[in-house]
Amino acid sequence: MASHAGTAPLPPPPVQGADVQSITASELLGWRRRMLALGGAPAALDWLLDLGGGLRWSQLQSLWSHPEADVPLQCSLASLEALWRRHLDTEEPLQYLVGRCPWRDLELPVAPGVLIPRQETELLVDLALSLWPSGLPLSCWADLGTGSACLAIALARGLPSSRGFAVDASPEARAQAGANLSRWNLQHRVTLLAGDWWQPLEPWWGRLDLVVTNPPYIPSATLASLEPVVRDHEPRQALDGGPDGLMAIRTIVAGSLRGLAPGGLLLMEHHHDQSEAVGRLFLAAGLERLGVHADLEGRARFASARRPGGR
Ligand SMILES: C[S@@+](CC[C@H](N)C(=O)[O-])C[C@H]1O[C@@H](n2cnc3c(N)ncnc32)[C@H](O)[C@@H]1O
To answer: How many CB atoms lie within 10 A of CB 8?
Structure first.
C-alpha cells in the first residue's frame, strides 16, 4: 500500500472568510462544468463546494433556476480548483485536503494518518446510548482505537456526567484526537491513552461500564482491492485486520471480561461478513446477551454483549 508519507505536503485548506468571493450563479455553474470535465464525481465536487466554499447542496440546486443570482462563496474558486485538481491527480481524500469531515452534528478536523470517520460509525453512538438502560448511572467508558476521537467526543457529549478514555496506538491518531477533544473542551473529561487496546486501561480494568470500538477489520488480502482514495491514503494501521480481518477483534474480545465492569457493555463495529464470527468470539469469551445490529442498509455491522453479573 502506498503511504501518505510519500506525497507532497498538503496545500493549505481553504480558510473560510480569508478569500471570500462573490460570483454569479452562471459563473459558478460554468466553473463546475469545467471542473467535472477534468474528471471526478459530481457528488465529490459538490461536497467540496459545501465544505470548502460554504455552499450548501440545497443552495447549489437553486442556482440552476436563478443564473444571475449572486453566490457568496467563503473562499475563492481558485483555491477550490487547486484542491480539486490535486484530488484528481493524487486521489487524496477531499476530507484530508479540506482538513475537515462532517460526522453526526460535528465538523471534525482530520489529517493524513487518521481514519476519516465513516457514516455507518455514527450508529455506534446511537446504539451505545440506547442499549445502556435509562436511569442507570454510567460512570466510566472507553473508546478503543479512537482515531479522530469521533466516538469519544459524541459519547462524552451524550453522557455528560461520565468519565471517558480514548485509546490509540498511533501517534498521528492521538495527536488529532487530542486536538479534537480540546476543540470541544472535553480534554478534562476524556483521557487520551497511548498503547495497545486494553493495556493502557489496566488501572481501570473491571470498572468500565461501556466500551465502544471500531477496530481495523479488513482482511489484509482485501486491502489491495480497496479504492485508491482509501488504500493509498488512509492509514493501514486503521484498516488492516490481519489474515482473516479478525486479529484486532480477537484481542479486544479476549480482554473484555477483565476490562468491563460486571454487567458492562461491549459494542463493536465489524465488516459486513463478520457478524457470525464476531458473535461466536463474544460468546466463547464468556460475554452474554449477544446483540446483532444492522447498519442503514440492513447489513449486520455491529455486535454488542455484556459481561455477566452486575445489573
Ligand atoms: C478503524 S479505525 C477507527 C477510528 C475511529 N474510532 C473511527 O471510528 O473513525 C481503528 C483505529 O484503531 C487504532 N489501532 C490500531 N491498532 C491498535 C492497537 N493495537 N491498539 C490501539 N489502537 C489501535 C488505529 O490507529 C485507528 O485509529
So the answer is: 8
